[in-house]
Amino acid sequence: MANLKSAIKRNRQNEKLREHNRIYRGSARTFVRKALATIESGDVEASREATMVAVKALDKAAQKGVIHKNNASRRKGRLMKKLAALEK
């Protein structure tokens, strides 16, 4: 347990930031999972829409600093590759 006043405040800030980051990270994961599921189903139009929503969520998480920009880019690349394979 923190004894210093600054450490106590820092713990409070860390908890707030963790909850804030969790929202963006969780929504990005959810949208990516939904996009992958629609790609697996084979519906091209729904897959394209779901992928664009997932890309937007990943970009937002990277912009907020929740995930690294290269991490977001890698995930988007993998999604787009699967979408392109479906569209062929």
Q: How would you explain this protein's 3D organization?
A:
Helix 1 packs antiparallel against helix 2, helix 1 (5-41) runs parallel beside helix 3 (69-87) and helix 2 (44-64) runs antiparallel to helix 3. The mean pLDDT is 96. The protein has helices at residues 5-41, 44-64, 69-87. 88% of the residues lie in helices and 0% in strands. The longest helix has 37 residues, at 5-41. The chain has one domain (5-87): Ribosomal protein S20 (Methane Monooxygenase Hydroxylase, Chain G, domain 1), CATH 1.20.58.110. It has 88 residues and is mainly alpha-helical. The protein contains 3 helices and no strands.
List keywords for this structure.
about 90% helix; Methane Monooxygenase Hydroxylase, Chain G, domain 1; single chain; mainly alpha; about 90 residues
CATH architecture: Up-down Bundle
Strand fraction: under 5%
What sequence of helices (H) and strands (E) makes up the elements?
A: HHH
Largest sheet: none
Radius of gyration, taken over Cα atoms and rounded to an integer in Å:
17 Å
Q: What top-tier CATH class fits best?
A: Mainly Alpha
Number of domains: 1
Q: How many angstroms separate the termini? A: 57 Å
Global outline: elongated
Oligomeric status: single chain
Q: Helical stretch count?
A: 3
Q: Compute the number of strand runs.
A: 0
- Unreliably modeled segments: none
Secondary structure layout plus pairing:
Layout: H1 5-41, H2 44-64, H3 69-87
Helix pairs in contact: 1-2, 1-3, 2-3
